Amino acid sequence: MRINPSTVVVALSGGLDSSFAAARLIEAGWRVRGLHLVLPAPAEVLDARRKAVLEAAGFLDIEVEFLDLTQQFIDGVVSPFVSRYLKGLTPNPCVVCNERIKFPALCRYADTLDIPFVATGHYAGHERTGETIKLLRGSDPLKDQSYFLHRVDIRCLARTLFPIGTLTKEHCRNEALAIGLNAADFTESQEICFLQGTDYRRLVEHLGGQAATAPGQFVTESGEVLGNHQGIHRFTIGQRHGMGIASARPYYVKALRPERGDVVVGRREEIFSRDALALQFKWLRRPQSDVRFSAQIRYRHRAAPGLLRMEEQDQVRFIFDEPQWAVTPGQALVCYDGETVVGGGWISNQ
């Protein structure tokens, strides 16, 4: 369903994607207003972001406002990030941020101005058929970000535009350069924006207190002790390096047992698994019974086919046709029907 241009709030980061998204909307006849969400970062990074946003807004000739979400982000994203690592999980803060911070703030801001639509520079798409909203993969397979958006409230998705979702990154970069948009040269944001190049282990140890310094042991499934470590937060499923275990064949992290502080290790062939249990599953389109879909177990994972089994209201088990490498508790299991996002939940270590 085509939407007639009206007024829209665009989330401006100062980078290429969001700036070019705003440019495309303006070209299509939309009245655009910018909003920059201020998130935790060193002062020099905040200054660089602010400068880039103001330059983009000036080039586009649009108004822009800055909304400080520093404390909300610390409480809603950073603190859970730390606590989940200490529980033996490998969190995905980008999924959490989109669900709890960015999209709710963007939609609330638009509501205060009675603006019906919001937009972002995500590489994703959606279709509207009457009252039905479908979240789709972006056209660029190297940049598709639908995985990160599966938990965004459907009411917010219904009013969200993805102006570059049908384009490739290369096309956006070339077009931005062609129109003189300086944001094309702005450094792309990192996957975990608040780390700014810092090792996540340092952050966990800085904020995690005594729990982050609890030592433990490397053990096999049979209980053989192979060595000691300085905290389970330093490890994730499938990790090979950083263990210092002398062996003719390499060991890989197979499981984490936070209650005992054990890092369970195994050989490469032991790290593959055919099933994943997902909790707090959020549906965009709920099936009536068990059904075949494809599922993605982390952002860079190639979605693999299998059977989705409905276990409880918000709990599913996905059985892959073929074993998958390093199914990791704490990451999101996101299910797709072709290019359409069905829903997703958090992979459990139960």
Give structural notes.
The protein is of the alpha/beta class and 350 residues long. The protein folds into 3 domains: 7-185, Rossmann fold (3-Layer(aba) Sandwich); 215-266, SH3 type barrels, CATH 2.30.30; 272-347, Elongation Factor Tu (Ef-tu), domain 3, CATH 2.40.30.10. It is built from 7 helices and 17 strands. The strands form 4 sheets. It has a 6-stranded antiparallel β-barrel. The protein has a 5-stranded parallel beta sheet with strand order 3-2-1-4-7, with helices on both faces.
Compact overview of the structure:
The chain has seven helices and 17 strands.
Write the layout of secondary structure elements.
Elements: E1 7-11, H1 16-27, E2 31-38, H2 43-60, E3 64-68, H3 70-86, H4 93-112, E4 117-119, E5 124-129, E6 132-137, H5 154-157, E7 160-161, H6 169-178, H7 200-207, E8 216-219, E9 225-229, E10 252-257, E11 262-266, E12 272-283, E13 291-296, E14 304-312, E15 315-325, E16 332-337, E17 340-347
Parallel strand pairs: 1-2, 1-4, 2-3, 4-7, 8-11
Antiparallel strand pairs: 5-6, 8-9, 10-11, 12-15, 12-17, 13-14, 13-16, 14-15, 16-17
Name the features:
350 residues; alpha/beta; Rossmann fold; Elongation Factor Tu (Ef-tu), domain 3; six-stranded antiparallel barrel; five-stranded parallel beta sheet; 17 strands; 25% helix; globular
The quaternary structure here is single chain
- Chain-averaged pLDDT: 93
Which structural class fits the helix and strand makeup? alpha/beta
Number of structural domains: 3
Query: Using DSSP, what is the number of strands?
Result: 17
Describe the main β-sheet briefly: 6 strands, antiparallel, barrel
CATH fold node name of the largest domain: Rossmann fold
- Assign the CATH superfamily of the largest domain: HUPs
Strand content: 25-35%
> How does the overall form come out from the CA principal axes?
globular
> Which strands sit side by side, in order, in the main sheet?
12-15-14-13-16-17
In CATH, the architecture of the largest domain is: 3-Layer(aba) Sandwich
Helix share of residues?
25-40%
Order of helices and strands: EHEHEHHEEEHEHHEEEEEEEEEE
Q: Unreliable stretches, pLDDT < 50, 5 or more residues?
A: none
